Amino acid sequence: MRPTSRIDLRVAAAFCGTVGLYDVLYLFLLLSGGPLIGPIQNILFPDFLVFHAAVRAFLEGKLALVYDIDAFTQFQNAIYPDRFPWTVHFRPFFYPPTWLLMLLPFGLLAVGPAYGAFMIATAAAATVLEGRRDWWGWLAIVTSPAAAWVVLAGQNTFLSLAFFYGGLRLLDRSPAVAGILLGLLSYKPQIWVLVPIALLAARQWRALAWTAGTVVVLSFISLGVFGLDFWLAFLEAAREAGSARVADEMFRRIFMHMTTLLAAGRILGLSLGLAGAIQLTGAAVAVAAVWFAFRRHPAGDARTAILMTATFLVSPYTLNYDLLLLMPAAVALFRRGIAVGFYPLERLLYLILWLMPTGGMILNRLDLPIMPLVILLFGAIAWARLQAESKVELPNAAAAG
Fold first, then answer.
1. Residue-by-residue pLDDT tens, the chain, 401 positions
2. Which helix (DSSP H) or strand (DSSP E) does residue 382 occupy?
């Protein structure tokens, strides 16, 4: 190992260790009611409260409330009076019925224990399917600012990470298992949307078939459990989520957490039409990059990083806790940089990316939406790594022939 490589590792360990210790202490004090050493959180695990309320509505025979934004919000005010410091007014559930199906076991517990079980189960799944490949890197990831925001929100990002990375890593070794994992990821459509394109481009026919089959099976099971009317209500809710009224309400309430090109344009004061055009342009570039990467290159960390980066560019609705999905790719590319050398300012980019879940939120409030730019730059590094690896492999392939 080169001397500079040892320095890079030590600096990275010190940086991630310091940030990780702060994150752990911040979460512990916040969840235990101790003194505040970071951003105030008026509602603990607000997203999990939405998940738990949806299961409660089903168990109480009030399933029709779930996709009715106003009625479902009132239901949450009624069942969680001790969780909200004031009456809340906008608490929608926009996930497909397949996600509610996965959540059903957690509705058997009170909300506090259910939240704990949910976070432990999803983090364990991520550890088994991704984390155990690199224990020190995984320790940095689970104590990163992105992970802290997942825990604060009570979100499902650990589970998405498990399905995404687990599925991609098993593509060549076990296409059936890979397809099942990637099919399960469909519970979160904005994260899953590019997966079929990647599988098609890579000619992973078996994995694609298993992915499609898993989606169909999940959909039919949820149809049998919840009924056709619930699926029709979801489709109507999905249409309503794209309406100007709901989109404006969501942007007003959570713009500081948003990572998308569309949100950046709106924060900068662009018209909705122009911001939407920028989002569509980014989505087109993302689709093209994924197609090229998976059509012409074998499996590898750089290819995975391109797909994950493209997911953030194609989706108009990703938040700062979703950035956890980028962290395993960032660790992998950092290790690649240690092995073969870094591009100019690449180290600085990783530092900014690591801090962005919190720092980007602050900058969004200051009308400086840099999160999409940082994601784009990370994608550019991944693209450069992919091209460099292909140039190294070509002579070897020629020699083998």
1. 566 788 998 999 999 999 999 999 999 998 888 888 888 888 889 999 999 999 999 999 999 999 999 999 999 999 999 998 889 999 999 999 999 999 999 999 999 999 999 999 999 999 999 998 899 999 999 999 999 999 999 999 999 999 999 999 999 999 999 999 999 999 999 999 999 999 999 999 999 999 999 999 999 999 999 999 999 999 999 988 888 888 889 999 999 999 999 999 999 999 989 999 999 999 999 999 999 999 999 999 999 999 999 999 999 889 999 999 999 999 999 999 999 999 999 999 999 999 999 999 999 999 999 999 999 999 999 999 999 987 765 444 433 33
2. helix 371-400
Residues 190/313, Cβ–Cβ less than 8 Å: no
DSSP H helical segments within 44-174, as ranges?
A: 46-59, 69-79, 97-103, 111-129, 135-142, 145-153, 157-169
Among residues 282, 306, 284, the alpha carbon closest in space to that of 386 is found at 306
Count CA within 13 A, CB hemisphere, residue 119.
19
Neighbouring C-alpha atoms within 13 Å toward the C-beta of 2: 10
Report yes or no: 16 and 143 within 8 Å, Cβ to Cβ. yes
The Cα 348–Cα 260 span in angstroms is 21
How far apart, in whole angstroms, are the C-alpha atoms of residue 19 and residue 277? Answer: 37
> ∠338-344-345 over CA atoms, to 5°?
90
CA-to-CA dists, residue 37 to 26, 32, 107, 252, 363, angstroms: 6, 13, 32, 26, 19
**What does the domain layout of the chain look like in residue ranges?**
1-31, 44-191, 242-389
Instruction: Please calculate the CA angle 77-81-85 and round it to the nearest 5 degrees.
Output: 95
